[in-house]
Design goal:
By secondary structure, the protein is of the alpha/beta class.
Length: 451
């Protein structure tokens, strides 16, 4: 499949990396020769220097043969114009990243339908939704939901006092009768593996599990992550640093979840706007590093501290300060890949990237129809896919006899209203929805296996 990508920023690079790895013919257009050269040196893509909103440049890039057109530059207008040109060239699928609310809000004068764009993505909204979800989950640093919220993919950090610490996978399997879940992956020292029977869970590991929504309370209890009754009565306390669009979105949602919310921003005029838009949130005009003011406002009693300013360094530093002053979990918006990998080692509980939010949505749209949903793990390029079973040759055969692609594991099978955490004896039926964890090298083989 030929895919034309406009914009060699973080999202463009990530998409080039993933799509070229899967064997697609990827052409990248950007005005910056340095960015193009860097990506061409590292990835198997063709780079074209020029303006992605120029018909001449797009023809040079082969737009007439393109099946998918993705515009992800930093300028909304360029992305919109580029997609309009792609429509004139009759590219079947057109995708644009849009930051401005004018294009994506209800009643927008220029909606995606009017523009002829199949998918409009606002990364800020996606990041805010993910942070809200993580804010309401005790002890979780990553979460994704599949099959209309029935199956959850959860990431947990293993501390020395965690009940799973020093257990082998074989020992863990012995308690699955009590707790219905499947441990699918372990990230250790920057490397992600699918563990086997003798592999041991170690302190400092990040583990990923599949579980049904009904079984989450039991798993929280097993990991000693349940919240006390007194805390539930009082409601949780949240501090949000950064009153931009993301911070406002999070504050509104946490208000509805009965959090006691305090939002901090350094811009006095912005604080006045936020106070008018929020019903129950206390808006504070202060710097994120002004710990004296935050202490006076009760930062030591905060259950969560969420840093979502426009600067990665500020989010990291203020999260560490909040943790030092007694805040519970810390969540930070971090977009630079090098900082995204560093921040968890410093003690920040959750790190979220807006580039992943955009890329996940685009990758889901690019996949074939069998892939219903997907999520990507930052740092490892691994994926979790929800796939609809149609292929006759894999139906009715025990999983242990299917020669399932190495580097991937089925974490859950959903059949109508029933679900199963699979074993080697489990069998697939037509219409099943399976949720799969796959390492990068297995993605192409997984798609081939099911199609």
């Amino acid at each position: 499949m030929k895919i034309l990508i406009i914009g060699a920023g973080q999202v463009g690079y990530f998409l080039c990396e993933r799509l070229s790895l899967e064997g697609h013919e990827v052409v990248l257009v950007d005005r910056n020769q340095e960015n193009l050269g860097r990506i061409q040196d590292r990835l198997n893509v063709l780079g074209i220097l020029g303006n992605g909103a120029s018909a001449e440049i797009l023809e040079q890039a082969g737009i007439k043969e393109a099946e998918i057109f993705i515009a992800v530059t930093d300028l909304d207008e360029v992305n919109i114009l580029a997609c309009l040109l792609a429509r004139e060239y009759e590219v079947p699928t057109r995708i644009a990243r849009i930051k401005s609310i004018e294009y994506t809000s209800r009643g927008a004068v220029l909606s995606k339908e009017k523009l002829g764009i199949d998918l409009l993505i606002n990364p800020d909204d996606a990041v805010a939704e993910e942070l809200v979800t993580l804010s309401t989950r005790s002890g979780v640093f990553d979460v994704a939901e599949f099959v209309e919220g029935q199956i959850h993919f959860l990431g947990y950090q293993i501390s020395e006092d965690n009940p799973l610490c020093d257990l082998t996978l074989r020992e863990l399997g012995e308690i699955r009768g009590m707790y219905r879940f499947l441990l699918t992956a372990i990230t250790r020292n920057g490397r992600t593996i699918i563990p086997r029977g003798d592999d041991k869970i170690q302190a400092g590991d990040r583990i990923f599990v599949f579980a049904h929504q009904k079984d989450l309370p039991a798993i929280q209890y097993m990991l000693h992550l349940e919240e006390g009754t007194e805390q539930k009565k009082k409601g949780s306390r949240a501090f949000i640093l950064g009153g931009g669009r993301i911070g406002l979105h999070i504050a509104r949602h946490l208000e509805h979840s009965n959090f006691e919310v305090k939002l901090v921003d350094r811009d006095e005029k912005r604080c006045e706007v936020l106070s008018a838009k929020l019903k129950k949130t206390l808006v504070l005009h202060a710097e994120g590093t002004d710990m004296r003011t935050l202490s006076e406002e009760g930062i030591e009693h905060a259950d969560i501290f969420i840093a979502v300013t426009s600067k990665d360094e500020t989010n990291i530093l203020c999260s560490l300060l909040a943790r030092q002053y007694g805040a519970g979990r810390t969540l930070a918006l971090i977009n630079k890949p090098e900082l995204l990998n560093l921040a968890p080692t410093l003690g920040i509980n959750v790190c979220i990237s807006s580039r992943l939010a955009a890329a996940n949505t685009i990758l889901k749209y690019v996949r074939r129809s069998e892939v219903i949903s997907l999520a990507t793990l930052e740092g490892s390029n691994s994926e979790v896919l929800e796939i609809l079973v149609k292929k006759d040759s894999i139906i009715g055969v025990p999983l242990k006899d299917l020669h399932f692609p190495q580097g991937a594991i089925i974490g859950a099978i959903v059949r109508g209203e029933n679900y199963e955490i699979p074993t080697g004896e489990s069998r697939l039926e037509s219409g099943d929805r399976v949720v799969i964890f796959a390492l990068p090298g297995a993605l192409a083989r997984i798609e081939k296996f099911f199609t």
